[in-house]
Amino acid sequence: MTWTPADLPDLTGRTAVVTGANSGIGEHTARELAAHGATVVLACRNEESARAAAAGIDGSTRVEKLDLSSLASVRAFADRWEGPLDLLVNNAGVMTPPRYRETEDGFELQYGTNHLGHFALTGLLLPALLAAPEARVVTVSSIAHHGGSAAVLEGNPKATYRPSPAYGNSKLANLLFAAELQKRATAAAVALTSTAAHPGVSATGLVTSPDGLGAIPGVRTVSPLFLRLLFQSAKAGANPTLYAATAAEPGSYTGPQRLRESRGPVGPAKLSRAGRDDELALRLWDLSEQQTGVTYSF
User: If we measure between CA atoms, which residue out of 230, 216, 223, 138 comes closest to residue 177?
Assistant: First the structure.
């Protein structure tokens, strides 16, 4: 497929929320959406960094505080929201903290932030999404989801915590959520499209974040040069998300097409067996409602 951000439609009059838009793939996603006319809300934990990113974006933007590791922060963000929402990009994430950590609500950090935070956010913003003519929800996963398993239902417990499998489970949870959301929207006959995407392997701050591998001494110093030499740019990594946000089919999963989906033009991405498990998706959905206290009403 030869799709590029130049193929984005005119988004004038549409409002988008991009979580984790202060840097990396989220920032480039916000930049392109704004360049094509959308009003973009940069929903970020670090407001200062988000304001700096917004200042460099040509278009209509605003910054809102959102910490996905806090269900109270997610609820506060949703309570402040007014009006229809055309596009929600569930992009923010934490990757492979070397030691077990928890959110303020007592969930393992990756599972609680990457999955439960976005599950709650989407559910609480559902009325705003359904108030838009043709809303979309894009959930950003990873090729690391292939390392996830049915153990995702255990929520990455401390007793068996290992950084990479825990991250894989959180990214598998993203995919299962996106698929189940589309099924429920279709069953309810509402104008809501759910898609998923992954960026391949990109040079972003996710690796150097102090919440992830950046907690290991030396990683934050050495990684930036290493990442730029070996991996595609964050700008290229945003392309699958942008395609999923505007052109992809309902329920689809988009990613790069070359070098085992690590880079290249956008197209259909491969799902693991667990990622295609409808029963697992349903069980995770029910569990997520119990854990967050958020239920979806279409």
Answer: 138
Q: What is the pLDDT of residue 260?
A: 87
Residue ranges for the chain with pLDDT beneath 70:
202-231
| Nearest-angstrom CA–CA distance, 273 and 230 | 29
Tell me, what amino acid is at 131?
A
pLDDT at 209: 52
Helices within 16-117 (DSSP H only): 24-35, 47-55, 71-80, 109-110
Residues assigned a catalytic role: 167
pLDDT at 204: 59
Q: In what order do the strands lie in the sheet with 253-258?
A: 61-65, 39-44, 15-19, 87-90, 135-140, 192-197, 253-258, 263-268
Annotation: CATH topology of 5-201+236-290: Rossmann fold (3.40.50)
Asked whether the beta carbons of 207 and 173 are under 8 A apart, the reply is no
